[in-house]
Description:
Blueprint: H1 2-67, H2 76-108, H3 110-113, H4 116-149
Amino acid sequence: MKRQEKIIKGFAIVIAMASLVFGAYAQNTAQQQQLQQQQMLRLQSMTQSMNKIMERSQNLVRNLEQKMTQVKPQTQNQVRALQQMGEGTAKIAEQMKGNLERWQEMIQNRELAGNREMTKDLNRIQNRLEKAANELDEMLRVMERVANRLGIDN
Length: 154
């Protein structure tokens, strides 16, 4: 009898351990899915932000082109420089949007996402891209203010 009790206790312990392991695995999987959803939402937001920056940059360039003949001759060099900066900003935003797409491909790769260190590095890339997007947006705001000071309404 004692032997059967020991066997039953052993099975109970094995079952308890298995349920704990399974529960931890299920929780980890749920956390990973939640993290991926958050990353996709951030990615979507950043992509929309890049689209807006490209659009605003192109509008700035168009407005500068239209107003070039209306500004004083001594101001035309500044307007031209600002126009070139606007064109460059639009190109940077387009490149960043491409980088976001490449990042998305990497984060969705199960081999890469399964490696904890790789996941940390991919998250760092996302954070840097987000930071760069915010900086680019701020730079465009400053350029728009400069255009307004030069007498070019956006």
